Amino acid sequence: MSGSAWIDGVFWLLAVVAIVSGWRVFRSQSMVRSAFLLLASLLGTGAIMLLLAAEYLGFALIFMMALEMTVMALFMVAFMMNPAGLNPMSMVHQHRTAIAAGIVSFLGLASVGVFADFPDQPAGSATTAVEDLGTELLGDSMLVFESAGVTLLATMVGAVVLANRRGRRGLADAGSLPPPLDPETPQREGQPAQDGGHHHHGGHG
Amino acid sequence: MGSAQVAPWAAVAAVATALLVGTYAVAVLDSALGQVISGGGMGLRRALALPWRKAAFLLAQERIRTERPDATLWALAPALYGGLAAAALTVIPLSPTLVVADLRSGIVWWGALEALVMVAVYLHGWAPNSVFPLIGGYRFVAQVVSYELLSMFVLIAAALPAESLALTDIVRAQEGVWNAVRHPPALPLWIVVTLGVSFWGPLNLPDSEDLAGGTSAEASGSHRLVWALARAAMLVAFSAMGATAFLGGWLGPWLPGPIWVIVKTLALLVVVVALGHLLPRFRAERFVSLAWTVLLPLAFLDLVIAGLEALR
Known about the structure:
- The structure holds 2 protein chains of 2 kinds.
- Chain A has helices at 3-27, 31-51, 55-79, 95-115, 129-138, 142-163.
- Chain A is mainly α.
- Chain B is globular, with a radius of gyration of 19 Å.
Protein backbone atom coordinates (compact mmCIF):
# COMPACT_ATOMS: atom_id res chain seq x y z
CA MET A 1 0.00 0.00 0.00
CA SER A 2 1.44 3.36 -0.97
CA GLY A 3 2.00 6.25 1.43
CA SER A 4 -0.88 8.38 0.22
CA ALA A 5 -3.32 5.45 0.45
CA TRP A 6 -2.31 5.00 4.07
CA ILE A 7 -2.85 8.69 4.72
CA ASP A 8 -6.27 8.61 3.03
CA GLY A 9 -7.24 5.58 5.13
CA VAL A 10 -6.15 7.27 8.34
CA PHE A 11 -8.01 10.44 7.34
CA TRP A 12 -11.30 8.57 6.82
CA LEU A 13 -10.86 6.65 10.04
CA LEU A 14 -10.28 9.86 12.01
CA ALA A 15 -13.16 11.59 10.26
CA VAL A 16 -15.50 8.74 11.24
CA VAL A 17 -14.22 8.89 14.85
CA ALA A 18 -14.78 12.65 14.95
CA ILE A 19 -18.29 12.53 13.51
CA VAL A 20 -19.58 9.42 15.33
CA SER A 21 -18.31 10.54 18.73
CA GLY A 22 -19.66 14.04 18.03
CA TRP A 23 -23.07 12.51 17.40
CA ARG A 24 -22.84 10.30 20.53
CA VAL A 25 -22.26 13.44 22.66
CA PHE A 26 -25.98 14.19 22.33
CA ARG A 27 -27.19 10.60 22.67
CA SER A 28 -25.33 9.96 25.92
CA GLN A 29 -27.21 10.36 29.20
CA SER A 30 -24.23 11.37 31.30
CA MET A 31 -22.42 14.69 31.60
CA VAL A 32 -19.04 13.03 32.02
CA ARG A 33 -19.52 10.67 29.08
CA SER A 34 -20.72 13.52 26.87
CA ALA A 35 -17.73 15.68 27.77
CA PHE A 36 -15.24 12.93 26.97
CA LEU A 37 -17.05 11.90 23.79
CA LEU A 38 -16.69 15.51 22.69
CA LEU A 39 -13.01 15.21 23.57
CA ALA A 40 -12.76 12.08 21.39
CA SER A 41 -14.35 14.02 18.54
CA LEU A 42 -11.89 16.90 18.96
CA LEU A 43 -8.95 14.49 19.19
CA GLY A 44 -10.00 13.11 15.81
CA THR A 45 -10.00 16.67 14.44
CA GLY A 46 -6.62 17.37 16.03
CA ALA A 47 -5.14 14.26 14.46
CA ILE A 48 -6.48 15.35 11.04
CA MET A 49 -4.62 18.64 11.56
CA LEU A 50 -1.46 16.57 12.10
CA LEU A 51 -2.13 14.86 8.75
CA LEU A 52 -2.30 18.33 7.20
CA ALA A 53 1.26 18.95 8.51
CA ALA A 54 -0.09 21.54 10.98
CA GLU A 55 1.93 19.77 13.65
CA TYR A 56 2.08 22.49 16.27
CA LEU A 57 -1.57 23.49 15.93
CA GLY A 58 -2.69 19.84 16.06
CA PHE A 59 -0.76 19.16 19.28
CA ALA A 60 -1.93 22.45 20.77
CA LEU A 61 -5.55 21.54 19.95
CA ILE A 62 -5.18 18.11 21.63
CA PHE A 63 -3.45 19.69 24.63
CA MET A 64 -6.02 22.46 25.12
CA MET A 65 -9.06 20.26 24.54
CA ALA A 66 -7.91 17.54 26.97
CA LEU A 67 -7.68 20.20 29.69
CA GLU A 68 -10.84 22.02 28.70
CA MET A 69 -13.10 19.00 28.37
CA THR A 70 -12.00 17.74 31.80
CA VAL A 71 -12.66 21.16 33.32
CA MET A 72 -16.02 21.27 31.52
CA ALA A 73 -16.99 17.83 32.87
CA LEU A 74 -16.04 18.83 36.40
CA PHE A 75 -17.90 22.14 36.25
CA MET A 76 -21.04 20.54 34.83
CA VAL A 77 -20.97 17.93 37.59
CA ALA A 78 -20.38 20.63 40.21
CA PHE A 79 -23.14 22.98 39.00
CA MET A 80 -25.69 20.19 38.60
CA MET A 81 -25.23 19.15 42.26
CA ASN A 82 -24.81 15.61 41.06
CA PRO A 83 -21.48 14.72 42.65
CA ALA A 84 -20.62 11.69 40.60
CA GLY A 85 -22.26 12.82 37.37
CA LEU A 86 -23.63 9.30 37.16
CA ASN A 87 -27.35 10.06 37.31
CA PRO A 88 -28.84 9.90 33.82
CA MET A 89 -29.91 13.21 32.35
CA SER A 90 -30.72 14.40 28.86
CA MET A 91 -27.90 16.16 27.04
CA VAL A 92 -30.31 17.89 24.62
CA HIS A 93 -32.37 21.01 25.26
CA GLN A 94 -34.00 23.97 23.39
CA HIS A 95 -34.79 21.65 20.48
CA ARG A 96 -36.02 24.23 17.94
CA THR A 97 -33.18 26.70 18.49
CA ALA A 98 -30.64 23.88 18.46
CA ILE A 99 -31.99 22.43 15.19
CA ALA A 100 -32.01 25.87 13.54
CA ALA A 101 -28.51 26.69 14.74
CA GLY A 102 -27.30 23.27 13.60
CA ILE A 103 -28.70 23.66 10.10
CA VAL A 104 -27.38 27.22 9.70
CA SER A 105 -23.86 26.35 10.87
CA PHE A 106 -23.79 23.17 8.73
CA LEU A 107 -24.80 25.15 5.62
CA GLY A 108 -22.26 27.86 6.45
CA LEU A 109 -19.36 25.46 6.87
CA ALA A 110 -20.46 23.28 3.94
CA SER A 111 -20.59 26.34 1.65
CA VAL A 112 -17.00 27.11 2.65
CA GLY A 113 -16.13 23.52 1.73
CA VAL A 114 -17.89 23.76 -1.63
CA PHE A 115 -17.02 27.29 -2.76
CA ALA A 116 -13.57 27.93 -1.25
CA ASP A 117 -10.53 27.54 -3.48
CA PHE A 118 -8.26 25.13 -1.59
CA PRO A 119 -4.59 24.72 -2.51
CA ASP A 120 -3.94 21.17 -3.70
CA GLN A 121 -0.18 20.82 -3.49
CA PRO A 122 0.85 18.45 -0.67
CA ALA A 123 2.87 19.98 2.16
CA GLY A 124 6.35 18.50 2.18
CA SER A 125 8.28 17.54 5.27
CA ALA A 126 10.45 20.63 4.86
CA THR A 127 7.62 23.06 5.60
CA THR A 128 8.42 25.65 8.19
CA ALA A 129 4.94 25.80 9.70
CA VAL A 130 6.19 26.06 13.29
CA GLU A 131 8.62 28.84 12.42
CA ASP A 132 5.97 30.69 10.38
CA LEU A 133 3.53 30.44 13.26
CA GLY A 134 6.15 31.71 15.70
CA THR A 135 6.99 34.63 13.42
CA GLU A 136 3.30 35.45 13.11
CA LEU A 137 2.70 35.30 16.88
CA LEU A 138 5.83 37.16 17.92
CA GLY A 139 6.34 39.36 14.85
CA ASP A 140 3.77 41.80 13.49
CA SER A 141 0.94 40.52 15.70
CA MET A 142 3.02 40.42 18.88
CA LEU A 143 1.25 43.34 20.56
CA VAL A 144 -2.18 41.78 20.06
CA PHE A 145 -1.21 38.33 21.29
CA GLU A 146 0.87 39.54 24.21
CA SER A 147 -1.89 41.94 25.35
CA ALA A 148 -4.40 39.11 25.21
CA GLY A 149 -2.00 36.80 27.04
CA VAL A 150 -1.23 39.24 29.84
CA THR A 151 -4.93 40.13 30.21
CA LEU A 152 -5.82 36.44 30.54
CA LEU A 153 -3.03 35.90 33.05
CA ALA A 154 -4.20 38.87 35.14
CA THR A 155 -7.76 37.49 35.03
CA MET A 156 -6.58 34.09 36.22
CA VAL A 157 -4.54 35.57 39.07
CA GLY A 158 -7.52 37.74 40.02
CA ALA A 159 -9.86 34.75 40.01
CA VAL A 160 -7.49 32.75 42.20
CA VAL A 161 -7.16 35.66 44.65
CA LEU A 162 -10.96 36.13 44.78
CA ALA A 163 -11.53 32.41 45.31
CA ASN A 164 -8.89 32.14 48.03
CA ARG A 165 -10.27 31.38 51.46
CA ARG A 166 -7.37 32.82 53.42
CA GLY A 167 -6.77 36.56 53.37
CA ARG A 168 -5.36 39.51 55.30
CA ARG A 169 -8.70 40.10 57.04
CA GLY A 170 -9.27 36.49 58.04
CA LEU A 171 -11.08 33.64 56.38
CA ALA A 172 -13.33 34.56 53.47
CA ASP A 173 -16.26 32.51 54.75
CA ALA A 174 -16.08 33.73 58.37
CA GLY A 175 -19.61 34.33 59.66
CA SER A 176 -21.35 32.76 56.66
CA LEU A 177 -23.94 30.05 57.21
CA PRO A 178 -23.92 26.61 55.65
CA PRO A 179 -27.08 26.02 53.59
CA PRO A 180 -29.78 24.04 55.47
CA LEU A 181 -30.07 20.41 54.44
CA ASP A 182 -33.84 20.75 54.05
CA PRO A 183 -34.64 23.55 51.58
CA GLU A 184 -37.93 24.33 53.41
CA THR A 185 -36.18 25.21 56.66
CA PRO A 186 -35.44 28.95 56.95
CA GLN A 187 -31.86 29.74 57.85
CA ARG A 188 -31.43 30.41 61.55
CA GLU A 189 -30.06 33.79 62.53
CA GLY A 190 -26.72 34.10 64.26
CA GLN A 191 -25.74 30.47 63.91
CA PRO A 192 -22.00 30.57 63.45
CA ALA A 193 -20.24 28.69 60.68
CA GLN A 194 -17.48 26.28 61.56
CA ASP A 195 -15.04 29.11 62.27
CA GLY A 196 -17.46 31.05 64.47
CA GLY A 197 -16.85 34.54 63.05
CA HIS A 198 -19.36 36.86 64.77
CA HIS A 199 -17.88 40.09 63.46
CA HIS A 200 -18.58 39.60 59.81
CA HIS A 201 -20.12 42.63 58.08
CA GLY A 202 -23.75 42.08 57.27
CA GLY A 203 -23.70 38.63 58.77
CA HIS A 204 -26.68 39.47 61.03
CA GLY A 205 -28.79 41.40 58.58
CA MET B 1 8.39 14.18 9.64
CA GLY B 2 11.85 13.19 10.85
CA SER B 3 15.27 12.99 9.33
CA ALA B 4 15.38 9.20 9.20
CA GLN B 5 12.25 7.19 8.53
CA VAL B 6 11.85 4.15 10.77
CA ALA B 7 9.82 1.26 9.35
CA PRO B 8 6.44 0.95 11.14
CA TRP B 9 7.10 -2.60 12.36
CA ALA B 10 10.52 -1.59 13.70
CA ALA B 11 8.96 1.40 15.50
CA VAL B 12 6.30 -0.78 17.15
CA ALA B 13 8.90 -3.40 18.11
CA ALA B 14 11.23 -0.76 19.57
CA VAL B 15 8.55 0.90 21.69
CA ALA B 16 7.17 -2.48 22.86
CA THR B 17 10.67 -3.65 23.86
CA ALA B 18 11.35 -0.39 25.71
CA LEU B 19 8.04 -0.75 27.56
CA LEU B 20 8.58 -4.41 28.49
CA VAL B 21 12.19 -4.04 29.62
CA GLY B 22 11.47 -0.70 31.30
CA THR B 23 8.46 -1.86 33.32
CA TYR B 24 10.34 -5.00 34.39
CA ALA B 25 13.31 -2.82 35.46
CA VAL B 26 10.95 -0.61 37.49
CA ALA B 27 9.40 -3.64 39.22
CA VAL B 28 12.81 -5.17 40.04
CA LEU B 29 14.21 -1.83 41.24
CA ASP B 30 11.11 -1.25 43.34
CA SER B 31 11.37 -4.52 45.24
CA ALA B 32 15.21 -4.51 45.46
CA LEU B 33 15.46 -0.88 46.63
CA GLY B 34 12.56 -1.41 49.01
CA GLN B 35 14.48 -4.23 50.66
CA VAL B 36 17.78 -2.34 50.73
CA ILE B 37 16.21 0.78 52.22
CA SER B 38 14.39 -1.18 54.90
CA GLY B 39 17.68 -2.89 55.79
CA GLY B 40 16.91 -6.34 54.42
CA GLY B 41 19.83 -6.65 52.01
CA MET B 42 19.55 -6.77 48.24
CA GLY B 43 17.99 -10.21 47.71
CA LEU B 44 18.57 -9.93 43.97
CA ARG B 45 17.20 -13.35 43.04
CA ARG B 46 13.99 -12.68 44.91
CA ALA B 47 13.74 -9.20 43.39
CA LEU B 48 14.19 -10.63 39.87
CA ALA B 49 11.47 -13.25 40.38
CA LEU B 50 8.97 -11.18 42.38
CA PRO B 51 7.46 -9.17 39.46
CA TRP B 52 6.67 -12.41 37.57
CA ARG B 53 5.10 -13.96 40.66
CA LYS B 54 2.99 -10.87 41.31
CA ALA B 55 1.90 -10.75 37.67
CA ALA B 56 0.99 -14.46 37.66
CA PHE B 57 -0.96 -14.03 40.90
CA LEU B 58 -2.92 -11.07 39.51
CA LEU B 59 -3.65 -12.89 36.25
CA ALA B 60 -5.12 -15.82 38.20
CA GLN B 61 -7.12 -13.56 40.51
CA GLU B 62 -10.87 -13.20 40.07
CA ARG B 63 -12.13 -9.90 38.65
CA ILE B 64 -14.49 -8.12 41.02
CA ARG B 65 -17.37 -6.02 39.72
CA THR B 66 -19.04 -2.92 41.07
CA GLU B 67 -22.68 -1.92 40.85
CA ARG B 68 -23.44 -0.43 37.41
CA PRO B 69 -19.95 0.67 36.37
CA ASP B 70 -19.18 2.28 33.02
CA ALA B 71 -17.47 -0.93 31.93
CA THR B 72 -16.15 0.47 28.63
CA LEU B 73 -14.42 3.49 30.11
CA TRP B 74 -13.20 1.45 33.08
CA ALA B 75 -11.45 -0.98 30.76
CA LEU B 76 -10.21 1.77 28.43
CA ALA B 77 -8.67 4.01 31.12
CA PRO B 78 -5.62 1.79 31.87
CA ALA B 79 -5.18 1.22 28.12
CA LEU B 80 -5.23 4.98 27.52
CA TYR B 81 -2.76 5.61 30.34
CA GLY B 82 -0.35 2.93 29.09
CA GLY B 83 -0.85 4.03 25.48
CA LEU B 84 0.14 7.57 26.44
CA ALA B 85 3.36 6.23 27.99
CA ALA B 86 4.09 4.35 24.76
CA ALA B 87 3.30 7.42 22.65
CA ALA B 88 5.58 9.49 24.86
CA LEU B 89 8.47 7.07 24.34
CA THR B 90 8.25 7.47 20.56
CA VAL B 91 9.89 10.91 20.62
CA ILE B 92 12.87 9.89 22.79
CA PRO B 93 15.99 9.83 20.55
CA LEU B 94 18.53 7.06 21.20
CA SER B 95 21.06 8.66 18.86
CA PRO B 96 21.01 11.57 16.36
CA THR B 97 19.24 9.35 13.81
CA LEU B 98 17.77 6.53 15.90
CA VAL B 99 14.36 7.90 16.90
CA VAL B 100 10.88 6.60 16.16
CA ALA B 101 9.34 10.03 15.59
CA ASP B 102 11.67 13.02 15.37
CA LEU B 103 8.87 15.58 15.72
CA ARG B 104 9.62 19.22 15.15
CA SER B 105 7.30 20.03 18.07
CA GLY B 106 8.31 17.12 20.32
CA ILE B 107 7.86 19.21 23.47
CA VAL B 108 4.32 20.22 22.50
CA TRP B 109 3.52 16.55 21.82
CA TRP B 110 4.73 15.80 25.34
CA GLY B 111 2.47 18.52 26.74
CA ALA B 112 -0.55 17.10 24.90
CA LEU B 113 0.16 13.63 26.32
CA GLU B 114 0.44 15.00 29.85
CA ALA B 115 -2.95 16.67 29.48
CA LEU B 116 -4.47 13.35 28.37
CA VAL B 117 -2.95 11.60 31.42
CA MET B 118 -5.38 13.65 33.49
CA VAL B 119 -8.29 12.31 31.41
CA ALA B 120 -7.10 8.69 31.84
CA VAL B 121 -6.72 8.91 35.62
CA TYR B 122 -9.99 10.81 36.10
CA LEU B 123 -11.89 8.23 34.03
CA HIS B 124 -10.22 5.38 35.90
CA GLY B 125 -11.63 6.89 39.09
CA TRP B 126 -15.01 7.83 37.65
CA ALA B 127 -15.90 4.68 35.71
CA PRO B 128 -16.21 2.08 38.54
CA ASN B 129 -19.13 4.05 40.11
CA SER B 130 -17.62 3.75 43.56
CA VAL B 131 -16.75 6.32 46.25
CA PHE B 132 -13.02 5.97 46.84
CA PRO B 133 -12.01 5.71 43.18
CA LEU B 134 -14.11 8.79 42.44
CA ILE B 135 -12.38 10.81 45.18
CA GLY B 136 -9.01 9.63 43.83
CA GLY B 137 -9.92 10.79 40.32
CA TYR B 138 -10.98 14.25 41.51
CA ARG B 139 -7.86 14.50 43.63
CA PHE B 140 -5.66 13.90 40.61
CA VAL B 141 -7.44 16.55 38.53
CA ALA B 142 -7.16 19.01 41.42
CA GLN B 143 -3.39 18.65 41.62
CA VAL B 144 -2.42 17.89 38.04
CA VAL B 145 -2.15 21.52 36.95
CA SER B 146 0.57 21.96 39.55
CA TYR B 147 2.71 19.35 37.76
CA GLU B 148 1.80 20.34 34.29
CA LEU B 149 2.86 23.96 34.68
CA LEU B 150 6.17 22.85 36.21
CA SER B 151 6.70 20.39 33.41
CA MET B 152 5.96 22.95 30.69
CA PHE B 153 8.25 25.58 32.19
CA VAL B 154 11.25 23.28 32.61
CA LEU B 155 10.76 21.78 29.13
CA ILE B 156 10.53 25.24 27.56
CA ALA B 157 13.70 26.13 29.48
CA ALA B 158 15.34 23.07 27.90
CA ALA B 159 14.12 24.16 24.45
CA LEU B 160 15.37 27.77 24.75
CA PRO B 161 19.13 27.15 24.35
CA ALA B 162 18.41 24.70 21.50
CA GLU B 163 16.13 27.26 19.76
CA SER B 164 14.01 24.29 18.75
CA LEU B 165 11.08 22.23 20.04
CA ALA B 166 12.58 19.00 18.63
CA LEU B 167 14.21 16.67 21.15
CA THR B 168 17.13 15.82 18.86
CA ASP B 169 18.03 19.53 18.68
CA ILE B 170 17.65 19.83 22.46
CA VAL B 171 20.17 17.01 22.98
CA ARG B 172 22.57 18.52 20.39
CA ALA B 173 22.44 21.86 22.25
CA GLN B 174 23.75 20.08 25.37
CA GLU B 175 27.14 19.27 23.86
CA GLY B 176 29.65 20.65 26.34
CA VAL B 177 27.25 21.30 29.18
CA TRP B 178 24.07 19.46 30.17
CA ASN B 179 20.85 21.32 30.85
CA ALA B 180 20.83 19.91 34.39
CA VAL B 181 24.03 21.89 35.00
CA ARG B 182 23.19 24.90 32.84
CA HIS B 183 19.98 25.59 34.76
CA PRO B 184 20.15 23.63 38.01
CA PRO B 185 16.49 23.72 39.18
CA ALA B 186 15.39 21.78 36.07
CA LEU B 187 16.25 18.19 37.05
CA PRO B 188 14.87 18.26 40.64
CA LEU B 189 11.66 19.83 39.30
CA TRP B 190 11.47 17.17 36.60
CA ILE B 191 11.76 14.46 39.27
CA VAL B 192 8.77 16.02 41.05
CA VAL B 193 6.85 15.98 37.76
CA THR B 194 7.82 12.32 37.19
CA LEU B 195 6.63 11.28 40.65
CA GLY B 196 3.44 13.29 40.20
CA VAL B 197 2.38 12.11 36.76
CA SER B 198 3.02 8.42 37.62
CA PHE B 199 1.63 9.15 41.15
CA TRP B 200 4.54 7.32 42.69
CA GLY B 201 5.70 7.29 46.34
CA PRO B 202 5.34 10.68 48.05
CA LEU B 203 2.99 11.97 45.36
CA ASN B 204 0.77 8.93 45.17
CA LEU B 205 -2.37 10.89 46.02
CA PRO B 206 -5.00 9.49 43.60
CA ASP B 207 -4.20 5.82 44.36
CA SER B 208 -3.17 6.29 47.96
CA GLU B 209 -3.68 4.13 51.04
CA ASP B 210 -5.81 6.76 52.79
CA LEU B 211 -8.39 6.25 50.02
CA ALA B 212 -8.19 2.45 50.29
CA GLY B 213 -6.33 2.39 46.97
CA GLY B 214 -8.03 5.40 45.35
CA THR B 215 -8.80 5.03 41.65
CA SER B 216 -7.69 1.37 41.77
CA ALA B 217 -9.63 0.53 44.95
CA GLU B 218 -12.08 -1.56 42.91
CA ALA B 219 -9.51 -2.88 40.41
CA SER B 220 -8.54 -6.52 40.70
CA GLY B 221 -6.89 -9.26 38.69
CA SER B 222 -5.69 -8.47 35.18
CA HIS B 223 -7.11 -4.93 35.39
CA ARG B 224 -4.91 -4.15 38.40
CA LEU B 225 -1.94 -5.69 36.59
CA VAL B 226 -2.45 -3.53 33.49
CA TRP B 227 -2.84 -0.41 35.62
CA ALA B 228 0.39 -1.19 37.52
CA LEU B 229 2.23 -1.83 34.22
CA ALA B 230 0.93 1.44 32.79
CA ARG B 231 2.12 3.39 35.83
CA ALA B 232 5.57 1.80 35.62
CA ALA B 233 5.64 2.56 31.88
CA MET B 234 4.83 6.21 32.60
CA LEU B 235 7.70 6.30 35.10
CA VAL B 236 10.03 4.91 32.41
CA ALA B 237 8.83 7.45 29.81
CA PHE B 238 9.32 10.42 32.14
CA SER B 239 12.75 9.19 33.28
CA ALA B 240 13.78 8.76 29.64
CA MET B 241 12.60 12.32 28.95
CA GLY B 242 14.57 13.56 31.98
CA ALA B 243 17.67 11.81 30.65
CA THR B 244 17.11 13.33 27.19
CA ALA B 245 16.17 16.90 28.05
CA PHE B 246 18.40 17.49 31.09
CA LEU B 247 21.16 14.84 31.17
CA GLY B 248 22.40 15.12 27.61
CA GLY B 249 20.61 12.10 26.09
CA TRP B 250 22.98 10.14 23.87
CA LEU B 251 25.98 12.40 24.61
CA GLY B 252 28.83 10.79 26.51
CA PRO B 253 32.34 9.43 26.09
CA TRP B 254 33.47 5.85 25.19
CA LEU B 255 30.07 4.15 25.01
CA PRO B 256 27.72 4.33 22.00
CA GLY B 257 24.82 6.81 22.24
CA PRO B 258 21.91 4.41 22.85
CA ILE B 259 23.77 2.85 25.81
CA TRP B 260 24.15 6.30 27.36
CA VAL B 261 20.41 6.99 27.03
CA ILE B 262 19.63 3.67 28.73
CA VAL B 263 22.22 4.21 31.50
CA LYS B 264 20.94 7.73 32.24
CA THR B 265 17.30 6.59 32.20
CA LEU B 266 18.10 3.75 34.61
CA ALA B 267 19.99 6.15 36.89
CA LEU B 268 16.97 8.46 37.04
CA LEU B 269 14.70 5.46 37.64
CA VAL B 270 16.87 4.40 40.61
CA VAL B 271 16.61 7.92 42.09
CA VAL B 272 12.85 8.15 41.56
CA VAL B 273 12.07 4.65 42.86
CA ALA B 274 14.35 5.17 45.89
CA LEU B 275 12.61 8.48 46.65
CA GLY B 276 9.34 6.57 46.49
CA HIS B 277 10.53 4.39 49.37
CA LEU B 278 12.31 7.12 51.34
CA LEU B 279 9.75 9.93 51.43
CA PRO B 280 6.38 9.81 53.20
CA ARG B 281 3.27 10.61 51.22
CA PHE B 282 2.39 14.29 50.97
CA ARG B 283 -1.04 15.53 51.92
CA ALA B 284 -2.82 16.77 48.80
CA GLU B 285 -3.38 20.37 49.92
CA ARG B 286 0.13 20.69 51.32
CA PHE B 287 1.59 19.54 48.05
CA VAL B 288 -0.53 21.95 46.01
CA SER B 289 0.51 24.87 48.28
CA LEU B 290 4.16 23.84 47.95
CA ALA B 291 3.84 23.48 44.18
CA TRP B 292 2.32 26.93 43.65
CA THR B 293 4.32 28.93 46.20
CA VAL B 294 7.78 27.32 45.99
CA LEU B 295 8.15 25.00 43.00
CA LEU B 296 6.41 27.21 40.43
CA PRO B 297 8.55 30.30 41.25
CA LEU B 298 11.55 27.96 41.07
CA ALA B 299 10.42 26.91 37.60
CA PHE B 300 10.14 30.60 36.62
CA LEU B 301 13.70 31.08 37.88
CA ASP B 302 14.77 28.11 35.79
CA LEU B 303 13.17 29.70 32.74
CA VAL B 304 14.89 33.04 33.44
CA ILE B 305 18.31 31.34 33.78
CA ALA B 306 17.77 29.45 30.54
CA GLY B 307 16.59 32.63 28.80
CA LEU B 308 19.63 34.62 29.91
CA GLU B 309 21.85 31.71 28.85
CA ALA B 310 20.20 31.71 25.42
CA LEU B 311 20.65 35.48 25.01
CA ARG B 312 24.33 35.36 25.87
